[in-house]
Write a structure and sequence with these properties.
mainly alpha, 10 helices, single chain, 264 residues
Length: 264
């Protein structure tokens, strides 16, 4: 590219487009800190930054078409903060799906005895969270397999339909929506972990009855391996249903996020 061509390209970019780019980037950025897959630590931060800039460049021309953005400092700062709030609300709603999977795994780690490994292992000072990692890993694979990343991008693009780039959201509905999504996190975690937790509770009751019949039996030494085996078998048996649950959750979460933004 020659100097003249570069100068012509730069002169074609208006100030409105530059401002719109940074406003779009402000709404895109929370996806790469809270949303599933996009915020994965397995992706280097430089790569995430490049992808965020690429998405912002692709959306800027569309969302700023026909829009006149302010050119003064204070209105621009306020609009920048509003874009951050909208992007954060949308990404937070999506992030609760994988937070529910991690919470379900943590429940099962505690009930099955996997969490006890961090207490008796002097070389490991953190919670091992074996089942939690399994659920998160499997959930990520299912998310990619069903095209969840494309769903998220399409849903994010629709946020500009319900909340234009120069729109001012109301904090009340945004906070109410975030509270609703957070309240659903525990319910979703129980939905995922409920069958396995119920089976482990029944196993505990069975070993309690056995200990009353055979007092000399070391229930702790025998029961812990059995509970671990039961937990792993039931987790493997319920994993096929996780795909359907995750598909429904993505659809419902995107719908809830867009509805709350529309109300706001």
């Amino acid at each position: 590219m020659t100097t003249a061509q570069l100068h012509q390209l730069l002169s074609a970019v208006e100030g409105n487009d530059i401002v719109g780019f940074f406003l779009v980037l402000a709404r895109v950025a929370p996806l790469f800190t809270l949303a599933p897959l996009f915020s994965s630590r397995q992706i280097p931060s430089q790569v995430r930054g490049i992808i965020a800039i690429a998405i912002a460049i692709g959306l800027t021309g569309v969302v700023t078409h026909g829009e006149r953005l302010p050119d003064q400092a204070l209105p621009l700062i306020a609009l920048f903060v509003e874009q951050l709030l909208v992007g954060t609300a949308f990404a937070f709603a999506l992030g609760t799906m994988f937070a529910a999977l991690a919470a379900a795994g943590s429940f099962l780690d505690t009930v099955s005895g996997f969490a006890y490994g961090s207490l008796i292992n002097p070389l490991n000072g953190v919670n091992s969270a074996v089942i939690s990692q399994i659920y998160t890993f499997i959930g990520t694979m299912i998310f990619v397999a069903i095209g969840g990343d494309a769903w998220v991008l399409r849903g994010f693009a629709r946020t500009y339909t319900v909340m234009p780039i120069n729109g001012a959201p109301k904090l009340g509905p945004l906070a109410a929506g975030a509270t609703q999504v957070f309240d659903a996190l525990f319910v979703s975690a129980v939905e995922v972990a409920g069958p396995v937790m119920l089976a482990l509770i029944v196993t505990d009751i069975a070993f309690g009855l056995v200990s009353r019949v055979v007092p000399q039996l070391n229930v702790f030494a025998v029961g812990l391996p059995v509970k671990v085996a039961v937990a792993l078998l039931l987790v493997a048996a319920t994993l096929p249903f996780l795909g359907g649950w995750l598909t429904d959750q993505i659809s419902n979460t995107l719908g809830v996020a867009l509805r709350e933004l529309q109300v706001a």
